[in-house]
Write a structure and sequence with these properties.
heterodimer, A: alpha+beta, 2 strands, disordered C terminus, B: TIM Barrel, two-stranded antiparallel ribbon
Amino acid sequence: MKTMKGPGVFLAQFMGDVAPFNSLSKICGWISGLGYKGVQIPSWDARCINLELAATSQTYADEIKNWRKSWNADY
Amino acid sequence: MQITELSTHLQGQLVAVNPAYDIMFDGFAPESLRGNPSGRQEWAVQQVKFAALASRNLGLNACATFSGALMWQNVYPWPQRPAGLVELGFRELGKRWKPILDVYEDAGVDLCYEVHAGEDLHDGITYEMFLKEVNDHPRACLLYDPSHFILQCLDYLTYIDHYHGRIKMFHVKDAEFNPTGKQGVYGGYQSWLNRAGRFRSPGDGQVDFGAVFSKLATYDYSGWAVLEWECAIKHPMEGAAEGAPFIQQHIIQVTDKAFDDFADSGADEAANRKILGI
């Protein structure tokens, strides 16, 4: 048998114009503090991701994958 | 912190829009494409395809979307639906999604339709009609969100029995349905707060999450349990704070042994034969 993963949170309803809701790195810091282990990303929200670039650049995708390391300063 | 999945709900919606909804859905598209339904559709298809490649590059194995709708304005059969309308609608929907699903197949990513009011895929029957049109495409999977089933009085637990093989994503979202002598499923054109059916923070509604998590664990669901927070009453900050422990408490750490192993008397065919008298 398998154990499901979680808790995660869908960011769509929480993104906003003011910090910490206005960037992926900042909102992840906040979400992490609440005990979440994962975020579901609304791909239409440029504050979260550049979808076309993530599709066409492995370098950019890797940067996002390693976000804890690369964006630690924002936490 | 990890990325669970990408979502393409808004772009998927624009893959199929009936002209009756053109104005209201135009806001989902970039400004340059507003008032241009065919350009908007082309953009949406490309976006959903991008999400397949982006998911692959990010090491993700599932992606969320909406099916869009050509027929939702005909969900109630009045005026009488012309013969063949629904069949034609699903044929067109399948035609639009099949090439997208093929991109997901090549990327090794499941595309999970959130079965939802307002979409042509809004229950199990419509999902099955769609599957037929895409030849049971292996990537045409499901995002399970029981809240939408509470609002339409669908049996959200038996649904898992039917479709567990296709459920690859899960939204933890609650809802309640409290019909009165004045309104029911249609909601009387009321606000979310005043509708008989409304979304609630997890634990505040009527979804039996103990049963949901048990069923998903029984069927070996190994994806993420993701809070989708929408509530007509509670403040989002309180909802977010309550969501993580709520989900954590419901996730079942599955067993690696049978509960009655302590009483195991060993496997012995000769003894079994004796027990059966054969």
